[in-house]
Specification:
The protein has 121 residues and is of the alpha+beta class. The chain is 17% helix and 45% strand. The strands form 2 sheets. Strands 2, 4, 7, 8 and 9 form a 5-stranded mixed β-sheet that branches. β7 and β8 form a beta hairpin. It is flat. It starts with a helix and ends with a strand.
Length: 121
């Protein structure tokens, strides 16, 4: 058992530097334009930041806020319309109270930290 403990400790020590070297990018939102909209409208927003590869979804803290990717007009030979990178249409339901709501962008490297989205008349 003493040999086994030594072997386990040696393997763990050897694997620690390898695990520390492999790190995923951390997605960050540094800008949102425009920063919000009015209840009962749809606004097109553009996201900017770092490591936003493959952002396909926005999740809001209020169920009355939903988003769909902006899709480019396809050519006749395209198989399917292609989403525009980091552009979304945000629908704001008419009953969403004025306020600041959090949202996160979900992409290839996971969710971003929350950002603010303003709803105001």
């Amino acid at each position: 058992t003493l040999r086994l403990c030594g072997l386990v400790a040696a393997c763990g020590a050897a694997a620690a530097p390898l695990a520390a070297q492999q790190s995923w990018p951390v997605p960050r939102l540094t800008g949102v334009f425009p920063l919000g909209g009015k209840p009962g409208t749809t606004v097109e927003i553009t996201l900017s930041g770092a490591d936003l590869d493959g952002v396909r979804e926005l999740r809001f803290s209020h169920p009355g806020l939903t988003a769909q990717p902006v899709v480019a007009q396809g050519k006749p030979y395209d198989e399917a319309p292609k989403p525009q990178p980091n552009r979304f249409r945000v629908a704001i339901a008419g009953d969403v109270p004025a306020g600041v709501y959090d949202f996160r962008a979900i992409g290839l490297y996971g969710p971003t930290p929350p950002r603010a989205f303003l709803v105001d008349s």
